[in-house]
Amino acid sequence: MNTMPYAGFWKRFVAFILDSILASLPPALLCIPFLVWQIIAFDQAPQNEKAIHAAAIFGIYLFWQILGLVCMWLYFAFQESGPRQATLGKRLMKIKVVDKKGNRIRFAHASGRFFAKIPSYLTIYIGFMMAGLTNRKRALHDYIAETYVVRADFDCTQNFPDTPSHPWWLAFIIVCMISLFLLGLFINVILKQPAGIAFQAGARLQLLATQPTIEAADLSNEQISYYTSTDGYHAVFYDNAGNKYALYLSGPEANVCCDNYQSTDCAATGLDECW
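and the corresponding structure tokens:
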């Protein structure tokens, strides 16, 4: 029988997912209809009015994010400082939040605990993972706010016994998460280089050549423009320095090449020049 009062990592994880969904519903239900309305209006508006609708879309999205943050804060702070000391998700998992003496926390304390989660987000969620690997199963925001997440039947007369900690596992996870972050950053930088963009554009040109039902305009984005002509398929893009590159594909069986008449430096794309 488990006599430890602390909530396990997975119970906290499930509770957090449920609470995040519940807290995000009101702002989503309020803002999504207006956002869709403005997106439709943007598509149907004449060119000289698109900027107005684009600004409205940005304003609605920004309001959505701010409202979402306020809803999340009030949802967690009011419930964790309430008589049940737990959000709806925590109640379902039969766990609650207490202070370092095992007592109910106040609204200001619960608010501080909520905003103490910011470092956990900034540390690529490592702060949340600490709840499964540290002594007394505390996440980073628990250390900052001096709180514990315990079973619902815990009372303040009980002690806070120590539990095994796993510093090496925590260090391993930190190294893995940082490595994944740096790898993603490296890949993102590579894909923004001429060779990386050319790789993406070349794959889309092959798709255009093999799928006649796909329109070139549907593939175009802020970075790469596609178009077709009587002699084949074309892609045009600019690098971060403003240099222009043009790629060409004559047909499905051909290879993508770099149009040396229009591009600045075909060698930077890693493709052969068109002849």
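(Above: one complete record from the training split.) The chain has two domains: 9-183, 194-269.
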